[in-house]
Amino acid sequence: GIDIVSDGEQTRQHFVTTFIEHLEGVDFENRKTMRIRNRYDASVPVVVGAVSRPKSVFVEDARYLRGLTDQPIKWALPGPMTMIDTLYDDHYGSREKLAWEFAKILNEEARELEAAGVDIVQFDEPAFNVFFDEVNDWGVATLEKAAEGLRCETAVHICYGYGIKANTDWKKTLGSEWRQYEEAFPKLQTSSIDIISLEAQNSRVPMDLIELIRGKKVMVGAIDVATDTIETPEAVADTLRKALQFVDADKLYPATNCGMAPLSRGVAQGKLEALSAGAEIVRKELSA
Predict the structure, then answer these.
(1) Which of 21, 150, 173, 257 is 20 to 30 A from 108 via CA?
(2) Strand ranges for 87-221 from DSSP E
(3) Is 171 in the same domain as 233?
(4) CATH of the domain at 89
(5) Does residue 219 fall inside a structural domain?
(6) What is the mean pLDDT of each run of 10 residues along the chain (288 residues)?
(7) 205 and 68 in one domain?
(8) 3 state DSSP class of 170
(9) Cα 230 from Cα 256, distance rounded (Å)
(10) pLDDT score at 219
(11) Is 58 in the same domain as 118?
């Protein structure tokens, strides 16, 4: 089965905007169109005043999940940089300033999630694969602010996006090797974040880039979320074996490349079963 459980974000319409909907200072009625991660245009909400979180957003959902399982549970929040890239700022006039404000709000939420029994708080930062200068100037710092003071484990998820056309078209422009992780990994290796989550299955990311985060725990994406084809357990195991050249076995967490929201329930179920079976193959090999 699945060792670390989430709720699959079943109560969310979107991994970023559902959180933002609960904040003050953001106008969802009078939207503006902007470019998302330099990839596609979208109608987005507008920051019109100081942002704040009047009450917890996901804590009740986390408590519900905690009551359903004795397994460790993981909860994902949008990261500060990805949040600012998913709305239009008409108030702060600075991406960095707004990111710091969101980091403080995320930290409030993360501390309450920890108190509700969450074992891993994950921050989703696909924007880290695009805005490299900002990642190193202040992106990792705002991420650490969001995770400040947490005693549970913390993770950052950096991927190449859902299997939607805008993302798959973008990937076709990246060439034979996808080396975007090379920009952020050195800074993340020295950060306070415990776990780095990355994309690997059917990816052109050179596996040896994992060496740049040596010492961190690594969630290795061994399931491709951009296709309905269900991986064989052996294909999953092969990806994990390659990753084990660069990360110690006790620090490798088999995972999916990203979320499976665009996929049917049956396909998603089959992919999770393949993930579990592939991980079991490698566990047996390591214990032989």
Answers:
(1) 257
(2) 88-89, 120-124, 153-157, 195-199, 217-221
(3) yes
(4) 3.20.20.210
(5) yes
(6) 93 91 96 84 94 97 98 98 94 98 98 98 95 96 98 96 76 87 97 97 94 97 95 98 97 96 94 98 96
(7) no
(8) helix
(9) 12
(10) 98
(11) yes
Rounded CA gap, 46 and 124, in Å?
21
- Looking at residue 14, what is its pLDDT? 87
Percent helix, strand, coil in the chain, to 5, is: 40, 20, 40
* Assigned token pair, 199: 């994309």
Q: Is residue 79 part of a domain?
A: yes
Which residue type does 238 have?
Answer: D
The residues, any chain, with a CB within 8 Å of residue 287's CB and separated by 6 or more, are none
- The bridge status of strand 74-78 relative to strand 153-157 is unpaired
Place of tokens 């990805």: 82
Helix (H) or strand (E) holding 283: helix 265-287
Q: Name the H helices within 16-78.
A: 17-20, 59-66
Please write the tens of the pLDDT for every residue from 109-163: 999 999 999 999 999 999 999 999 999 999 999 999 999 999 999 999 999 877 7
235-239, long-range: CB within 8 Å, 24+ apart, which pairs? 235/201, 235/274, 235/278, 236/201, 236/274, 236/275, 236/277, 236/278, 236/279, 236/281, 237/278, 237/279, 237/281, 237/282, 237/285, 239/200, 239/201, 239/278
Query: What pLDDT was estimated at residue 110?
Result: 98
- Residue 2's pLDDT is 93
DSSP letters, 258-282, are S--TTS-HHHHHHHHHHHHHHHHHH
Opening angle at CA 12, ends 146 and 81, nearest 5: 30
Q: Are 212 and 186 in contact (CB under 8 A)?
A: yes
How many independent structural domains does the chain possess?
Answer: 2
Structure confidence at residue 166 (pLDDT):
76
pLDDT (0 to 100) of residue 40: 79
The answer to whether position 129 is within a domain reads no
Sheet with 74-78: list strands edge to edge.
74-78, 120-124, 153-157, 195-199, 217-221, 252-255
